[in-house]
Design goal:
The strands form 2 sheets. An 8-stranded parallel β-barrel has the order 1-2-3-5-8-9-10-12, surrounded by 7 helices. It has a single domain (about 5-355), classed as TIM Barrel (Alpha-Beta Barrel), CATH 3.20.20. The protein has helices at about 5-10, 35-50, 70-80, 100-110, 130, 140-155, 195-205, 220-230, 255-275, 285-290, 305-315, 335-355, and strands at about 15-20, 55-60, 85-90, 90-95, 115-120, 160, 170-175, 185-190, 205-210, 240-250, 300, 320-325. Helices cover about 45% and strands about 15% of the residues. One of its GO terms (molecular function) is oxidoreductase activity, acting on paired donors, with incorporation or reduction of molecular oxygen. This is LLM class flavin-dependent oxidoreductase.
């Protein structure tokens, strides 16, 4: 059964993702080890798989305050602990990754997982991979397009001849191993850039749109531009899939969710601001209350509020996938596990039922 048929009957795909950040706990200031963080990521994926979620993603960073740099290795470990959940990068920094090596790694992951590997490609929030791997940020656009085009050629051919600007040419190179799937599915991640949305449409990939807060309707123009550009480039509407990603936390009541999540989310916001060179004060509780109000894109609340927010976004975007990051700011694994269980057992069944009648947004 292909993805379009699957979505038509089952509705929206629901999943979770992690960046593997190593943030001091706001209560006692201790930071768990990279080893423990990786083990918790595997446990989270196993729980998501057993609870019936559709996707698990792992992001890529190359910093001491993140445990996830080798995403294909982590996902390969997860593949051995899970049975059916799709495994995706979230995101792969395609501009600073050799496409041949990337294809080999994810084709191997696809074999180990029996056809569950996917890639979300993008730039990411940090730029440390450019000097680390010897690339110039000024070449970003050229690098992305060259690496994308080569990767897709590798995706379709067992032997490849190719010549570009940034790496050695290939002459009848054997590209191995070959994945279980006909091709490794490729999505392009966007943090709100019109350029990246139009690029995804032109290339005919899926688009994973990160909406981390605020009013979601401000992203409608990006989704429309993505679909319009894709159709103009000759791609079928059914091929132009949208995934929405965001931050969240779920508990039995909305008040409990906000009370439990606020210290960790405020911690996360302040820590990331510091990572990016800022010095913003700690997020106030009143600002947090506004950020978690029913009309915003921060998914903090009881299962019904999360359902309402997802379905509101579905009315705006008609998307096929939704993924939450649940583990920011040093939040304990027990609380992450609680959110995964509620997302899988209380939220996902309702959302799938409500969105199961259509693959794409009407008149998209």
């Amino acid at each position: 059964m292909n993805d379009s048929m699957q979505n038509e009957h089952q509705g929206m795909e629901i999943g979770v993702y992690t960046l593997g950040d190593l943030v001091p706990d706001p209560y006692h200031g201790e930071t768990i080890s990279s080893r423990q963080r990786l083990q918790e990521m595997i446990q989270a994926a196993k729980l998501a798989d057993e609870a019936g979620l559709d996707l698990f993603g792992v992001g890529e960073h190359h910093r001491l305050d993140y445990a996830a740099s080798a995403t294909s290795v982590i996902l390969a470990a997860i593949a051995q602990a899970t049975k059916r959940i799709k495994l995706t990068s979230a995101t792969t920094v395609l501009t600073t990754t050799d496409p041949v090596r990337l294809f080999e790694e994810y084709a191997t992951l696809d074999l180990l997982s029996n056809g569950r590997a996917e890639i979300i490609a993008g730039r990411g929030a940090f730029l440390e991979s450019f000097p680390l791997f010897g690339y110039d940020l000024n070449d970003y656009d050229e690098l992305f397009m060259e690496n994308f085009e080569l990767f897709q050629q590798l995706n379709h051919q067992e032997k490849v001849s190719w010549q570009g600007k940034f790496r050695a040419p290939l002459q009848e190179a054997e590209i191995a191993p070959r994945p279980v799937q006909p091709q490794i599915p490729m999505w392009i991640g966007s943090g709100g850039s019109l350029v990246s949305a139009e690029r995804a449409g032109k290339l005919g990939t899926g688009m994973a749109l990160a909406i981390l807060g605020g009013a979601p309707n401000r992203f409608q123009a990006l989704v429309e531009a993505y679909r319009e550009t894709g159709i103009a480039a000759g791609h079928k509407p059914s091929e132009l899939k949208v995934a929405i990603t965001g931050h969240g936390y779920i508990s039995s009541t909305t008040q409990q969710s906000k009370d439990e999540y606020y210290p960790y989310y405020a911690n996360y916001r302040q820590y990331v601001d510091k990572q990016l060179g800022g010095s913003a004060p700690k997020l106030s509780r009143s600002d947090f209350e506004q950020m978690t109000s029913p009309e915003t894109a921060l998914f903090v609340g009881d299962p019904q509020l999360i359902i309402d927010k997802i379905l509101h976004q579905y009315e705006l975007f008609g998307h096929q996938r939704f993924m939450l990051q649940l583990d920011v700011g040093g939040i304990p694994f027990s609380k992450v596990a609680q959110s995964i269980e509620l997302l899988a057992t209380k939220v996902a069944p309702v959302v799938r039922k409500e969105t199961g009648h259509a693959v794409t947004k009407p008149n998209a």
